[in-house]
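pinned: reference chain
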Amino acid sequence: MIDLKGISKRYSDVKALRGIDLSVPEGSIYGIIGKSGAGKSTLLRIMSLLEPADTGEIYYHHNRVDVLGKKELHQQRRKMGMIFQNFNLFSSRNVAGNVAYPLEIAGTHKKQIHERVEELLEMTGIADKRKARLRELSGGQKQRVAIARALAASPEVLFCDEATSALDPQTTRSILALINELHEKLNLTVVLITHQMPVIRDVCEVVAVLDEGLIVENGAVDEIFAAPRTKAAQELIYA
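pinned: its structure tokens
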């Protein structure tokens, strides 16, 4: 579904990414792991078209998207959902208002917004919190709101940037179970950036190991976890 070819990115004298080639199969849960500073978040921003690469090409369904004009790029981004470690929710809105926001800015009719918000709140297990303010929610509930909001526009792919790093182990497991359930129910492609090995082991099918801006290993999760070849992968898996 997503193909990256020769992606490089430099910030001043720092080479964040160096010639990344990567293919994310449609309908997969694809993990990208690496230590802090390995280039994970940069790769995710470029893959999700939030930031341009210095060199390289990006394809979605074999169509090149990194050269799109402003209007077409905006339309392509609407096919993507994003959830973050710090939730990125609006404290001025209640739960339903946060989930409704992407639909409001897209000009969706009020009746359709209401129906879609109710559907997503049920789907993510927070229907009873529709009128709650963010200060009344736990971290796990806030992440469920963020997931519901990310799915509002019915995206094809869900990007998760360290989405469970701020959560305790039990809540992490519940959020991963929800992501896996939504992946199967909605036929979502999920790209998951993390440094947490249990997250990769529990939900991902394929994993890429990123080290100093390079992909040093890439393949099936069970194979790489059973016999990591590179020092970077070994340090992550055996830590």
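why pinned: Residues 90-154 form one domain. The chain has a mean pLDDT of 95.
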